[in-house]
Amino acid sequence: MDQDGIPSTPRGSLRQFLEQLSGAGKAIGVLTSGGDAQGMNAAVRAVVRMGIYVGAKVYFIYEGYQGLVDGGSNIVEADWESVSSILQVGGTIIGSARCKAFRTREGRLSAAYNLVKLGITNLCVIGGDGSLTGANIFREEWSGLLGELAQNGKIDKRDVEKHAHLNVVGMVGSIDNDFCGTDMTIGTDSALHRIIEVVDAIMTTAQSHQRTFVLEVMGRHCGYLALVSGLACGADWVFLPESPPEEGWQETMCIKLSENRARKKRLNIIIVAEGAIDTQNKPITSEQIKELVVTQLGYDTRVTILGHVQRGGTPSAFDRILASRMGVEAVVALLQATPETPACVVSLSGNQAVRVPLVECVQMTQDVQKAMDEGRFKEAVQLRGRSFEGNLNTYKLLAIKKPDSQIQKSGCNVGIINVGAPAAGMNAAVRSAVRAGISSGHRMLAVYDGFEGFAKGQIKEIGWSDVGGWTGQGGSILGTKRTLPGKYLEQIAAQMQAHSINALLIIGGFEAFESSVMFAEARGSHQELCVPICVLPATISNRVPGTELSLGSDTAINAVVQTCDRIKQSASGTKRRVFIIETMGGYCGYLANMGALAAGADAAYIFEEPFDIRDLQSNVEHLTEKMKTTIQRGLVLRNESCSENYTTDFIYQLYSEEGKGVFDCRKNVLGHMQQGGAPSPFDRNFGTKISARAMQWITTKLKEAQGKGKRFVTDDSICVLGICKRNLLFQPVAELKKETDFEHRIPKEQWWLKLRPLMKILAKYKASLEVSDAGDIEHVQRRGHGEPAAI
User: Fold this and answer.
1) CB–CB of 164/340 below 8 Å?
2) Domain check: are 52 and 170 in the same one?
3) Is residue 300 domain-shared with residue 364, that is, in the same domain?
4) Phi/psi at 318 (nearest 5 deg)?
5) Do residues 76 and 61 both lie within one domain?
6) Separation of alpha carbons 669 and 164, rounded Å
7) Which end is more exposed in the chain, N or C (fewer Cβ atoms within 10 Å of the end residue's Cβ)?
């Protein structure tokens, strides 16, 4: 492992490297504005450390725009240590306030003066659409404001020339995910964690008493939180501002609730966004819904309003990684900006960090509200973007069972099997596949206990209500084993024939991928295997070829990060202590690397980046230097198989010996706790959506073959469904085989290695960072129906 960074070669002019970017002589101001959101601190930390790393001065602007207007002690230079230990803290340490003064020209004049005095001409704003609109107005007026200040004799002409342009880059911090132009805003995932924690707790009490619970979540103008939490907990009914229920919804909802009770469901969950409306734009309140259920059905009903609980608490791993990526990208964008560059927002598209014009995003966000005000609800949903529309369609498909008379039977049987180690989200994926399959007219068959169970004929039909309440369950209810199908091929083929299985959905890790490769090779000798086969990657180690994210890895990273937070807390209490933490993952360093980035670790040892004794020595020296500062603790993550000889014990003993008199050492092996626990909201949602998408693919393939007695022998009939950059893609296993290192059971190329330098930079190591392609600003797309939905 080279502490000066990952060796990397530029490909043409598309890649710009950090060496070309210098912040020397530049000053960056960072402020948080509007409603707070978990993860804002991670963004502030990334901006400060990246700014200092490239040689710029970075200033905290306290209390948002109010601090910018008031100046004085509200604008303070930040150093490396001033953002230590804030990664795991919710809210924003630099404060946020609503500011009327900044809306006036006088207020902005005062703000411009305060910035020029300190030579700040780069502004990083973390907030919602109102905050970012304010920043853009300020930028457009900048030269006029400076001219006016010079006229009034407050600054001289040299200042006007020297600080002629203000560069503005925004990051969206909002728990509502109500900003167009990005798939996820900072804080949304953490807010979903708070909601799902409450829903899981409420479900147990509701079940005991056969109660109905009406849960009100935040979202005055955007129903994202209500929709995704409804999808993630399998709510009976969801009320959103963008998609009001049709006329006569009261009766429809009551029928749905009573049908669910008749199916022996002991509880009902109804989720309401605080801004929920009907088609006449009249509010629908949680109390109104409670009254309706009580009077019409006589059910014992309770209302829970979550309120500001959703804004609080520690940020999730997803938000910490997202905010760290955005913060670094924002600094790079500011350094690359020219007077002609429009103000941009650093956003997330699929799994890619991209820059989009601020004005376009704000305009489209306002267009959504306008469409809702004018009753154009279908258009409002489309304007929200592909992620929102995909969520809504999936929710409708899985929440409401069509009457049998409306479902056209396909005459096809689809098998579902779990393979490999258990991963959180597997059950959500099974539930989604079963319901999507039944809606398409298929008969769904559950295979129990992996391929061993398959060979023994442990296969049963599974119905709509059999999978009720599965989304929040960890592990694998169907049972899963690591056994490969190799020695059972004869029996499996016989079982497929006996049960007339026309398609197979395999949910699992690397074993699921290997199984599909075996099936592809065995098709010549077993014609029963000539059916559409789809693999859904589900493994905590995130090492299945053909996808950048696997089901279960988000839950596992959250487990790693929560433990690291507690360990850091213990270390800061005892002072001068370094913890060595071992993570799972086989030869794949994803958990160690991303866990280190989200927990603010000092180093992470992984198999993909070989290291030697000199690197270990360099890390010890780095920690020795760190102990001289106010941050007297260290955190080092090690992937379980990163090196045959540099074991966790060896590294622990080496650090203990070399650190004698400076720091002491402790080690911790996290083990199987990384596999357990309830799935995170991300994994519940991801599992639900990709599984529904897989069933769509299977249905399309089966329709093509209907009545033709077609056998599936082509490569494109055995695929892995995964997320690649910005889209969900089906990739044939025959092609993915070439991209796989079968010896170490990992893909040959892994996208997250690009984030490795990020972890090093934020831990104060030198590293070469590859920034987004050419730093181009992309236009916000008004997406059509045909595009596959990202997460």
Assistant:
1) no
2) yes
3) no
4) -55, -45
5) yes
6) 55
7) C
Contact 607, 588 (CB under 8 A): yes
CA 375, 377, 378, 383 torsion-angle sign? positive
d(CA 250, CA 230): 18
Residue 420, marked binder: no
Backbone φ, ψ for residue 755 (5° rounding) = -85, -5
The reply to whether 16 falls in a domain is no
Task: Compute the distance between CA of residue 695 and CA of residue 702 in angstroms, rounded to an integer.
Answer: 10
| Secondary structure, 3-state, 428-473 | HHHHHHHHHHHHCCCEEEEECCHHHHHHHCCEEECCCHHHCCCCCC
Scan for tokens 């990739």, then name that residue.
Answer: 731
What the block records as the tokens of 451 is 């391929």
Confirm whether 761 is domain-assigned.
no
In a domain, 154, yes or no: yes
- Pair of tokens at residue 557: 């990273």
For 295-344, the DSSP string reads HHH---EEEEE-GGGGG-SPPPHHHHHHHHHHHHHHHHHHHH--TTSPPE
Instruction: Determine contact, residues 96/174, Cβ cutoff 8 Å.
Output: no
DSSP character for 544? -
Distance CA 717, CA 728 (A): 16
Residues 6+ apart with CB under 8 A from 785: none
At which of 648, 675, 702 does a domain end?
675
279: CATH: 3.40.50.460
Q: Are 565 and 595 within 8 A, CB to CB? A: no
d(CA 247, CA 259): 20
Residues 203 and 254 in one domain: yes
What length does the chain have?
Answer: 791
CB 204, CB 182: distance < 8 Å: no
326 carries a ligand binding annotation: no
Nearest Cα to Cα of residue 51 among 11, 77, 23, 76 = 23
Separation between Cα atoms, residue 385 and residue 391, nearest integer Å: 10
DSSP class of residue 646? S
Rg of the chain, C-alpha, whole Å: 27
In degrees and rounded to multiples of 5, residue 25 shows phi and psi of 80, 0
Q: Do 298 and 409 lie in a common domain?
A: no
Task: Report whether 677 belongs to an annotated binding site.
Answer: no
176 is catalytic: yes
675 labelled ligand-binding: yes
CA distances from 323 to 29, 316, 329, 346 (A): 17, 11, 10, 10
Q: Which of 626, 643, 675 is the last residue of a domain?
A: 675
Token readout for 13 is: 């002019």
Q: Assess whether 424 and 543 both reside in one domain.
A: yes
Kindly compute the dihedral angle of the four CA atoms of residues 157, 159, 163, 165, in this order, to the nearest 10 degrees: -30
Q: Write the CATH number for 541.
A: 3.40.50.450
Q: Are residue 430 and residue 562 in the same domain, yes or no?
A: no
644 DSSP assignment: S
Kindly report the pTM of this predicted structure.
0.93
**Which amino acid does the sequence have at 85?**
S
Beta bridge partners of 302: 213
Q: Which residues contact 248 (CB under 8 A, 6 or more apart)?
A: none
**Nearest-CA neighbor of 228 among 240, 244, 245, 220?**
240
Specify the number of domains making up the chain.
4
Identify whether 757 is part of a domain. no
| Series of mean pLDDT values for 10-residue runs along the chain (791 residues) | 33 42 86 94 97 95 96 96 93 93 95 96 94 94 94 91 94 92 93 95 84 93 95 93 93 91 85 94 95 94 93 95 95 92 90 89 91 92 86 91 89 96 96 96 97 96 93 94 94 96 97 96 93 97 96 96 90 84 96 96 96 94 91 93 96 94 93 90 95 96 79 92 88 96 96 92 81 61 44 47
Q: Which of 176, 178, 236, 319 is catalytic?
A: 176
Query: Rounded to whole angstroms, how far apart are CA atoms 603 and 2?
Result: 12
Give me the phi and psi of 33, to 5 degrees please: -140, 160
Do the annotations mark residue 627 as ligand-binding?
no
- Partner residues linked to 352 by β-bridges: 349
Q: 139 with 210, same domain?
A: no
